[in-house]
Amino acid sequence: MRRLLLIAAVALPQAAFAADSLVVHAVDVADQKAVVATVEPVHRLVARARIGGTIVSLKAKEGERAEAGAELATVADPKLVLQTQALDARIESQQAQLDKAKSDLDRADELLRKGAATQVQLDSAKTAYEVAERTLDAMRGDRSVIAQQMSEGAVLAPGAGRILSVPVSEGGVVLPGETIATLAEDNYILRLQLPERHAQFIRAGDKVQIGSRGLTETADETRRQGRVVTVYPEIQGGRVIADVKVDGLGDYFVGERTLAWVSAGARRVIIVPAAFIFRRAGVNYVRTADGAEIVVQPGERHGDGIEILSGLADGDALVAP
């Protein structure tokens, strides 16, 4: 009975070997290269001073979020106040001249009806009235321009985003067009700088694998998928610049770096299911159909399979251990 049980125990694995057989063949796989990607906003928004003057109020602070149209600072120019006061005085004076011209016109019109004045005198009074009226309108227009300049002292956020830098301080003097704050738009992307030799492989729409935060790769990390949206047509310093869209970058820092894997062409490899590889004394083996054990060097994992770097050739027949 013991001999029958032993024969049955030996026969069952042999039958399993016959069922779990595999003929390996070389296949083409995408050659993934690890590169460093940098988190960047799609657009950097710049809030600039529209008038020159002194910053009397500064509300922008680095790291805070600003809504579109929010007031970041107030720039005041004392000269505008003086110009407004001078124009107000001139407007009052011109208003008095207009009132006098209106009285002269009414008097000339009345005298003409009584026959005590000529048409020339009436026309002269009418012209003087119209000139005074147009001059008053021009002065009021000049005052409106100054009032608009004073209102432009409010520096508004051009869009919603996080404030990256504020290169000015309260009480400082700024010129028209000078930067008050720089904002990062809420929409973030990953910017890749690839070696020039990858220019022929990367295309818009290619899939990119993104690692977890940081520059350290762990064996059990879950990679996210991204998509190349823009490949810039200019090589800068031997680098190809590309933008990758990835969801979930809102809590990253601008300029933070992370690992990304991009396709760098294709290569032919032999992939074997992990179940066909066994390990003994620190060495990896596979078993051929004729029962021989061959030492192999495993490489990168591809799903449930493992790439074999050395030890196997195209067409080798294997059985599971």
What does this molecule look like?
The chain is of the alpha+beta class and 321 residues long. It folds into four domains: 2-30 and 269-319, conserved putative lor/sdh protein from methanococcus maripaludis s2 fold, CATH 2.40.420; 32-42 and 187-265, Elongation Factor Tu (Ef-tu), domain 3; 44-77 and 153-184, OB fold (Dihydrolipoamide Acetyltransferase, E2P), CATH 2.40.50; 78-151, Helix Hairpins (Orthogonal Bundle), CATH 1.10.287. It contains three helices and 21 strands. It has helices at 2-19, 78-114, 119-151, and strands spanning 21-23, 26-41, 44-48, 53-58, 65-66, 71-76, 154-156, 161-165, 173-174, 179-185, 188-195, 207-213, 224-236, 239-245, 257-273, 278-280, 283-288, 293-295, 297-302, 305-310, 317-319. A six-stranded antiparallel β-barrel has the order 2-11-14-13-12-15. The longest helix has 37 residues, at 78-114. The radius of gyration is 41 Å and the shape is rod-shaped.
